[in-house]
Specification:
0% helix; four-stranded antiparallel sheet; mainly beta
Length: 123
Amino acid sequence: QVQLVESGGGLVEPGGSLRLSCAASGSILIIKIMSWYRQAPGKQRELVATITSSSNTDYVDSVKGRFTISRDTAKNTVYLQMNSLKPEDTAVYYCNADLVAIHGSSWPRYNVWGQGTQVTVSS
């Protein structure tokens, strides 16, 4: 019953900032990789940013220097700080976790998606 819940989306003017949060709940041993994806209307879902359990990060070229992914391991929460937002950043943003859960005496590996949060950048 592991779940991811995103929050922090909304409407912002070009050049503004938003901070997205993704909180994981349930019987979790460790979250190995957490990622942010986004999907604009009529377009394919794309990977935006990734952070590993060792805090290695990676970003798609279009957001480098503007977005920062970080995590709070104790809270099982990942953040995406979005600065200098552009209209082309408008999309539904989804959190994804590659994690190890606790199920009885076993530790299964799961891939879990959040429900998505809308980000709209417009004047």
